[in-house]
Amino acid sequence: MIMNFKSYNEIELIEMLNRLSVEERKILFWALPSLKEYHTQFGEIYWNEYGWIDIDLLRGEICHCLFFGSFQAAMTLTNHFLENLLKTA
């Protein structure tokens, strides 16, 4: 299940950020500009679940790649997504 940050209040989100390691914080703050830019474009896709766990996991991973600007990884995962979708549909 993908974590839905919309359901958390501000205090809970701050507590979650405080639990991050120093390395995780560096990665997060390094990626913030691309996260802001691409989340507006792909956020709707990320938050809407399909109801199939295997498909939802791949969809979430593709969105993470898009959020971080890793487009080649997103294309590769999209190929796996489509193969998996055709096998399970």
What this model shows, in words?
The chain has 89 residues and is mostly helical. The chain has helices at 10-18, 22-47, 53-67, 71-88. Helix 2 crosses helix 3 and helix 3 (53-67) packs antiparallel against helix 4. The longest helix has 26 residues, at 22-47. The radius of gyration is 14 Å and the shape is globular.
Q: What's the helix and strand layout?
A:
Layout: H1 10-18, H2 22-47, H3 53-67, H4 71-88
How far do the termini sit from each other?
Answer: 20 Å
As a percent range, the share of helical residues equals: over 70%
SSE order: HHHH
Task: Note poorly predicted spans.
Answer: 1-5
Mean pLDDT, as a whole number? 77
For the report, how would you describe the main beta sheet? none
Q: Give the helix tally.
A: 4
Radius of gyration: 14 Å
Q: Determine the strand fraction and express it as a percent band.
A: under 5%
How many beta-strand elements?
0
The class by helix and strand makeup works out as mainly alpha
- Overall shape: it is globular
In short:
With 89 residues, the protein is mostly helical.
Main features:
disordered N terminus, 4 helices
